[in-house]
Design brief:
single chain; about 65% strand; elongated; mainly beta; about 150 residues; eight-stranded antiparallel β-barrel
């Protein structure tokens, strides 16, 4: 499993280096993404999310998203629903560091928790590679992930 995941992440990284689209946050208009993040904590957790919003053309993007979070040790299937803000520092470059923050809720059939998730990473053409710190209820996880921006 770990070997396949590493191979998948490496493939996405290589594809990001060869894409020709440039930084999506350098243009005004709609920008969406789909992302996958994993954590070795809590019995191997996996988050699959999608966010959609508006890029202001100056590196700032704001939107909202939802997804699925599977936490092994929490016997957990949770649905994160959040607002998100992202700032890409070098908007005219094909590779740019960024800061991102999600704020919302993690919910399932039994309970709802407040979600706060700051992240830092790098945009490489249409892909993002990032590290984030999830905080909800008593749960704290460090995740690494990749996203495809469209």
């Amino acid at each position: 499993m770990k070997k396949n995941l590493c191979l998948f992440l490496l493939t996405l990284f290589i594809c990001g280096g060869s894409a020709m689209a440039g930084n999506r946050l350098a243009r005004d208009g709609y920008v969406g993404n789909i992302s996958l993040s994993v954590t070795p904590q809590m019995g191997l957790g996996v988050d699959i999310t999608t966010s959609h919003g508006y890029s202001f053309g100056n590196g700032l993007w704001m939107g909202a998203g939802a997804g699925v979070s599977l936490m092994g040790a929490c016997d957990g299937f949770f649905i994160p629903i959040y607002t998100e803000a992202k700032y890409s520092f070098m908007k005219d470059e094909k590779a740019s560091p960024f800061l991102d923050c999600k704020f919302g809720v993690m919910t399932n059939t039994e309970s709802t928790y407040t979600l706060f998730s700051p992240a830092a990473g790098v945009d490489i053409n249409r892909f993002s590679i990032y590290a984030l710190y999830n905080m909800w209820s008593q749960v704290r996880t460090f995740n690494i992930g990749v996203a495809f921006n469209f």
